[in-house]
Write a structure and sequence with these properties.
224 residues
Length: 224
């Protein structure tokens, strides 16, 4: 089996395990929906107010929801001993990290991106922002999955490290949040969203290059 086929099989394995458990993706989407629907109850049903705060609400809720399942990126494999076997695969540990990240994004990021337009309607977001919202959220959640893999690897040996993981990851997600919200607001107001999306792409590219190396180094320390 080639290295690419092995990598794809690893992604498929993690996706199947996540779907078999069923709780991770469902909990993430449910949290996203609940947080977003609370805002109209808290600030009132005014259409103009909801439209003004919609980009920020959707982005903050999506990032918070995505962090819920980050702790399980490596922990389940570490608990049942699978992580030791994954480290012995005929591929770099960085590629294993990328496979875990891809599976995490497919089972959490993609459902969040799919749910966002429906919730955007609830918040009265103008239709001009829908396409940019989907694109920016797809890039932002993938960046968060990559950053979260580093945090998950660093907190692998910590009992109940979920809170610590959130404290590590969420500050690093601030640039993604800023430019993601700015991109949607620019699209809604008729301005150019391209520069903000390009910056999100640059953040994603930089994270994709650096995060697997950092997460793999942390995993090697945890496995020693």
């Amino acid at each position: 089996m080639s290295a690419l086929a092995t990598w794809a099989a690893l992604v498929g394995r993690d996706v199947r395990l996540s779907l078999r458990r069923g709780g991770d993706a469902g909990t993430v989407v449910a949290f996203f929906v609940v947080v977003v629907t609370l805002f109209p109850l808290g600030v009132g049903p005014g259409a103009e107010l909801l439209a003004r705060i919609a980009p920020g609400v959707l982005w903050v809720a999506a990032l918070l929801a995505a962090t819920l399942s980050l702790e399980r990126v490596f922990r389940s494999d570490a608990e049942d001993g699978s992580l030791d076997l994954l480290a012995l695969l005929p591929m770099p540990l960085e590629a294993v990290v990328l496979a875990k990240v891809a599976a995490h994004w497919l089972t959490t990021g993609v459902p969040l991106v799919a749910a966002a337009p429906v919730l955007a309607i609830l918040l009265n977001l103008p239709w001009q922002g829908f396409g940019v919202l989907v694109l920016a959220l797809a890039m932002g959640t993938l960046s968060l999955s990559l950053t979260g893999a580093v945090g998950a690897a660093l907190t692998l040996g910590v009992r109940r490290g979920g809170a610590l993981l959130a404290l590590l990851v969420l500050p690093l997600a601030v640039p993604v949040l800023i430019f993601g919200v700015a991109a949607v607001e620019a699209a809604v107001t008729g301005l150019a969203a391209g520069p903000h999306v390009a910056i999100l792409g640059g953040i994603l590219l930089g994270t994709a290059v650096l995060a697997p190396w950092a997460a793999a180094a942390a995993l090697r320390l945890a496995l020693e």
